[in-house]
Amino acid sequence: MLNSNNNVGAIFRFSTLLLFASLLLTGCVKDQLWNQPLAEEVGAIKDNACSINDAGRSVRCDRDGDIYFKTSFLEFDECGHEWDHRQLEGIKSHLRQLNQANKKVLAVVYVHGWHHNADPDDGNVANFRGLLARYVNELRVAGITDTEVLGIYVGWRGESFRFPLINIPTISGRAETADRIARAGQFKNDLLELSDLVRQGNGNNRLVLEGHSLGGRLISESFLPDLQSGTKAPLKGQVLILTVNPAIGADRFSAVFKKNPVAEARFPLWLNITSKDDWATGFVFHTAGTLGLLPITKGDKASKNAIGHYDRYRTHKLGVSYCKGADCVMPKTSPYVSSTIWSADDFHFSLYHYGDAVEGSTDHCVLLTRYGLKRMSIDKMRGTDLCKRLMEDFDTPNKYGLDENGAAIGIPLEGTFWNVETDDALIDFEKHSFFSASVHNGYVNTDLTRAVVQLIYDKDWPNAWR
Quick one: 259 and 379 in the same domain? Predict the structure, then answer.
């Protein structure tokens, strides 16, 4: 009987070991090139067609769409080297052709985060097409014509093990990989080349470099040395750097917030935006640092908190809410109201209208406020009687934007680096999902896209980098 029990135990241990080995073999995601360019000039660029409803909220990509844009891939291995240099050369060749023909372009470079890569079947690749379709639509709404939208998807091994929950500890290795790619310098050099080509063309050309989660970390680590030296536009003019829910510690920006801080904001050249409801860069990031899965500095609270969740470095708040009837009436004569939220004022209102009376319409009230509001500004804001749902308790003392002595830290880099707090009204899926981390991953948002388009084509935005 004893021998029988031993045999059963041995079989159980062997089966468990075999199952674990099988999980490792089947769950491991290879570091590989996913998109092979067919030829230097044509294989790197693909045509896309999508359709979007009148309210601009729902996108479907198929052959019958009337929203046209182009996509390409730029992929890096674990060491930060390009997998295939022809990808970059194909993109550069296409930009040169546009410049020679004096055609306008909006280049959108997107860097994905944790649990993703450049696999054509990856959910982020599909979301990227939806993001580009929204950019095309918002250009139309803004009356910006004859502008090609060129999407450049930056891929890297953001997922090393595909099984959910079991792969949570991989955050450590994936964060280190993002840092390693940044340190290698190839990604930064490629972006410098692409931004130069964008500037060499039409004066209305624009480039948006957007990173989500660990993608925001990769971008930040690539350009932090420039910011720390006081360079406010590391990719120079006509470029906006946008990091959404970035998974990087606030301590990495401590030196930045000491560089040329000013009391009054200018238009941002670097826009860091984080949802306060994002538990991935909130609770999970903090816990990962506490458990040693992410690097922290002992005794430094900033290193345990992602940049978007660190009170002292918050500069602005962006709020969005649905509105109906009288709540949607924006007085045209008010100095605090315009078609765009971008303003150097302490607060500013706007109304985002989608759709029409026939197909149905939606209205969003939008409020941008500067943290550290003075009593006079609070009274003026409340006196407008607008966006009532967004009127939080501004009387409650907080440490947002204040140092340990209660003094205002200011907006760094001459007011051009904005660290904006928002919530799940702006960053979330249409249908909220905890298991899909929608408050972290819902970055493809029509309101945010409209705000970005309004910013980069504002007539006063070029003054920020000059």
Answer: no
